[in-house]
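Field: COMPLEX_INPUT
Field: COMPONENT_COUNT = two
Field: RESIDUE_TOTAL = 228
Field: MODE = joint
Values follow.
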Amino acid sequence: MFDMRIDADGRVVVSGRLDASESERALEILDGVKGPTVLDCSQLEYISSAGIAVIMQTYKRLLAAGHSLRLENLTPRVRNVFVYAGLDGLLGIR
Amino acid sequence: MVRTFPRDMASLPALVDFVREFLAAETLGEDDAYALDLVLEELFTNLVKYGRGARGDVEVGLRRDPSGLVLTLREFDAEFYDPTAAPDVDVTRPIEERRPGGLGIHFVRTLTSEFRYDWRERIGTITVTMRAQN
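Field: COMPLEX_OUTPUT
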C-alpha cells in the first residue's frame, strides 16, 4: 500500500510501493512541495523506474527554483535501484 | 506457473500477488522478490505503453530451471514489437541532462542474464532469465 504525507516540519514521508500505478498520485503530492525538501524513504519498500521518474522530475523542478531535494534512510534494496539508475551519487542520498 | 492479466496498469497489484505465489512455491526470498517484481513491472508496463497485442491481455509465466528464474510475457495476435532493441540510457550523464524513459529496460538488462524476444505466428514472447539470489 503506497502512501505519501508531508509532515509538519516539511519532511515528506513515503511508504509502501511506489510503482507505475501510484506514480501519478505521487507526482501530484510532490507538486505541492515548493521549498527545500527531505524525502524520508525509511518506509519505502519498493520503487520502479516510474517512481524514480517522479523523483527526478521533482528534483529538477526544485533545482530550477533554487531549492534542493534530499533522500534519506533508503533501505538497501531501494538504494540498489538508485545505483542501477546511476543516481546514488546524486539526489543527496544518505 | 502461468496466468493471464489485462494489459492495464491496474493489473500491477495482481502481478505482485502472482510473484508472491511463485516465491512461496519455490521458497525464494526477498531479494528475488524485489528483482522479479521490478523486471516484471518494467516489462509489463512497457507492453501497456507500447504493446501491439490485439487481444488486450498478457500471459505471464514464471518458472525455475537450472539456468535460473525464467519469466515470460506473451501477447497474442500481436504486431512485431521488440523491447530488446530499445536503446539503453546513459546512466553516467548528469541528472539535469537526463530525459524520461528508457530506465525500465535498463533495469531489465541490469538484472537479467538473458533478455530475448521472439515473434512467430503473431505471438510475441519476451523471455528473461535471472539468477536466483536465495
